[in-house]
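Expect chain and fold; thus:
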Amino acid sequence: MKRLRITAASFVFLSTLLLSTSHVTAAELRKITFGYSSIGPMMHGLWMAKEIGAFEKYGLEAQLVFIASGPVVIQALLGGDLHAGLAATSAVIGAAAKGAGIVAIANTASRPYHRLWVQPDINRVEDLRGKSLGITRFGSLPHSANMDWPTRSICANSETQSE
């Protein structure tokens, strides 16, 4: 529970810092729109901040908006429809690499939090050779991860490298 409070406080602090808002009364709340790209454990800090009133405590009336893709959150942020966003690191890096004026100021994980669900006959990474993998959207974290990890995992095995 302590970690949840720390994460929630981090979101509020960063939002407050980003928007240069100080501790104010309820009558002076500044409206912000905060986009997020996933419904899962990685968003717990954002939701906790909203539920415990942490945004309001620091003068923000936060509207949390679910957008089902990290790259689309970044597009909405760059287009001015969002004041802040929580999206996949790969989406931020992709936009910055193409010259977008965007800065990542925090991260909720040190590695991707994804699972690969497969048919019962697939028991090892090598069993994926020649198979198709599904992704949610081009440029999304699942897309980036699926392009990277099979190559690293399969090439780590010297038997597979010689095939």
In short: Strands lie at 30-36, 60-66, 84-86. Residues 63 and 154 are 43 Å apart (CA to CA). Residues 125-161 form one domain.
